[in-house]
Amino acid sequence: MAELTPPRTVLITGATGGVGGALARRLSADGWIVYAAHRKPADAGPLRDAGLTPVLLDVTDEESVAAAADVVGPRLDGLVNSAGIMGQGPVELVPAEAWRRQFEINVIGQAAVIRAFLPALRAAGGRIVNLGAVSARVAPPFFGPIAASKAALAALTQALRMELRHQGVKVSLVEPGAMDTAIFGTADKAGADMGWAGSPQTQHRYAGALDAVQAAAARQPLGPVAPAVNAVVRALTARRPGTLYTTGRDGRALALLRFLPDGLRDRLMLRAMGVTAEVFRTSTAATVG
């Protein structure tokens, strides 16, 4: 009698919603044992009801990360880093604490998770898939925090891929465009919730531009999560996984902009977002008045 092949195992951070949640359900349906990482204890029940194995994990807490690695055990076929936050706003107005939190979760936390689970991934000849953003390649105005953190994650992923090349662990990066997930719905509140830096006059200087950007964002259709989920599945299962997957119509279009001269690209992006010189002149005049 042939020996049965054990089901493959994967740990997904940010598994309570968005791409992580959809991916967890997809892989579970495909027969994987899915360790669904969650930060809030109350999320364990719904994850368990969905046929997943909940694992309490806060990427900013190394003790929590180490405990999660103990739960998963000595072998792991896949690690998907999907946890993240999306901060945005003018570089001049985003407070230092917001920058620190952005990088703590989107970069330092990802590195901590990778470090903790690498022994299990190495033992299984597993895969690592990091979920980035196309803004890492072409940063739109007022998206500096998320773009900077995802650019750092892209650099981390590239270095890690080469470091593990001869150790049997393959590494991929998936960079989606804008998607219909909760993170995109709440991103514009991040600055207001944290509190802008700068004087009231400085804040008012950006008021018109921020209104224009919000209006442009409201007009932009958000794509489904399915293309990003499919890309992660390919990265986990393909015999020769790609190093970079860019998904979504807007994601691919934005990625192509990086080949344009900087000046032309800047003009196109500012125009598309409604950020004109007149917007700033109006805000400045109101501030002076």
Helix/strand-derived category reads alpha/beta
What portion of the residues fall into strands of 2 or more residues? 5-15%
Strand line-up in the sheet with most strands: 3-2-1-4-5-6-7
CATH superfamily: NAD(P)-binding Rossmann-like Domain
Number of domains: 1
Strand count, sense and barrel status of the largest sheet are: 7 strands, parallel
Mean model confidence by pLDDT: 90
In angstroms, what is the radius of gyration?
A: 20 Å
For this structure, what is the CATH class? Answer: Alpha Beta
Low-confidence stretches: 182-190
Can you characterise this structure?
This protein is α/β, with parallel strands linked by helices and 289 residues long. The protein has one domain (9-197, 221-259): 3-Layer(aba) Sandwich (Rossmann fold), CATH 3.40.50.720. Helix content is 52%, strand content 12%. The chain is built from 13 helices and 7 strands. The chain has helices spanning 18-29, 44-49, 62-72, 96-124, 144-163, 182-186, 190-194, 200-205, 207-219, 226-237, 249-256, 262-272, 277-288, and strands at 9-12, 33-38, 53-56, 78-81, 127-131, 170-176, 244-247. It has a 7-stranded parallel β-sheet, sandwiched between helices. The longest helix is centred in the middle third of the chain and has 29 residues, at 96-124. It is globular and about 70 Å long. The model is unreliable at 182-190 (pLDDT under 50).
